[in-house]
Amino acid sequence: MNLFNSALGKNITFVHPAYFIISGLSGIPDMKYYYVFLCFVYIFSVLGNTAVMAVIYLDHNLRTPKYIAVFNLAFVDLFGSSALVPKLLDIFLMNHRNIPYNDCLTFLFFCYTCLGMQSFNLVALSYDRLIAIIYPLHYQVKVTHRFMLSMIASSWVFVIIAALISVGLLKRLSFCKSVVINSYFCDYGQIYRLACNDYFPNYVISCLLPALTFWGPFAFILLSYLYIGCTLAKVASVREGLKAFKTCTAHLSLVAIYFIPVLITSGSTLMDNIHPNARIMNLSLTSIFPPMFNPIIYVLQTQEIKTSVKRLLKIRGKSKVIKK
Predict the structure, then answer these.
(1) How far does Cα 200 stand from its chain's mean position?
(2) What residues have CB less than 8 Å from 246, skipping those under 6 apart?
(3) What is the pLDDT of residues 116-139, one digit of tens each?
(4) DSSP3 helix / strand / coil % (the chain, rounded to 5)
């Protein structure tokens, strides 16, 4: 990160605080019950995503490009919730609100990397559905294992570089006033606004990265489903169209769970009519709920996974009988 700590070849000394203070929700009584609730949500998320990953790994019938993306989504959900929730519980339940400067930037890096990857995972699944419905005869050629792995690997590289740039630009800021972050985690936008030197590059990044990691993927998913809908309306009957769209219900549910709360919060923030506590509450639930609901949705709405679970349970039951 020393690259960011120089300007025009001259070394500059930046004032970094020893720690930041995470304010969290303020003025709400008995908030410890909310954090206990988040703990239970986290447990369900870990169990559900681990189960989905195990089923995909154990069943060779699920070694398809689509389920490479589903496996990666489960991994990102597990990794992201594990990076966020235990730290939240430590901060608010154990009342360790003072977080060292470098720890805060590390916390920010992992949170933003996982949030970005969730969005790009939904893009990969959207592309899979687009090709499967519009070009079913070319699906095996267009959506290969290599293509899906390349798409996911490229997404990882992009979000990691974007997160590193964000953290690097924070390192060039001096903090000589408040160190209180008005959020539930090390929020990039809340941190750079505390700086007492020029933070225009950080402002540019704070506008650019959401466009690339949130609005861009959302626009692609929206346009892909509009294209699917228009194509089916032209070439298929209502019954055939509904049958084709039924294969998209799991993915559409994931898209709704991930994007709708953020859209509501973003719209309210732009209109300046959302209370800070409401913003923090909504964003925290947006970060926690998708990792819990995603495995439930895929198990209940995806026939292949339901069949695979039944098959694996039967095999395990037979093995127990043989041992007896």
Answers:
(1) 26
(2) none
(3) 999 999 999 999 999 998 998 899
(4) 75, 5, 20
CA-nearest of 152, 154, 132, 153 to 143 is 132
Give the ranges where 135-144 is alpha helix by DSSP (H): 139-142
**C-alpha span between 256 and 242 (Å, rounded):** 19
Give the pairing type, strands 19-22 and 180-181: parallel
Is the whole-model pTM more than 0.85? yes
CA 315 to chain CA centroid, Å, is 34
16 or 5: which leads in pLDDT:
16
Closest CA to 165 of 218, 123, 214, 105: 105
More confident residue, 294 or 109: 109
pLDDT range class, residue 8, cuts 50, 70, 90: very low
Residue 234 pLDDT exceeds 70: yes
CA diameter of the chain: 75
Is 4:199 a contact under the CB 8 Å cutoff? Answer: no
**Which tokens hold the place of 197?**
């030197």
Of 122, 125, 211, 126, give the one whose Cα is nearest residue 162: 211
Closest CA to 166 of 135, 188, 198: 188
SS3 category, 98? strand
3-state secondary structure of 42: helix
The total number of residues shown for the chain amounts to: 324
Question: At residue 321, what is the residue type?
Answer: V
What phi and psi, each to the nearest 5 degrees, are found at residue 251?
-65, -40
- Give per-residue burial for 9-48: e unless 16+ CB within 10 Å, then b: eeeeeeeebeebbbebbeeeeebeebbeebeebbeebbeb
Residue 94 dihedral angles phi and psi, to the nearest 5°: -90, -5
Q: Which two tokens stand for residue 55?
A: 């089923």
* pLDDT reading at 40 higher than 80: yes
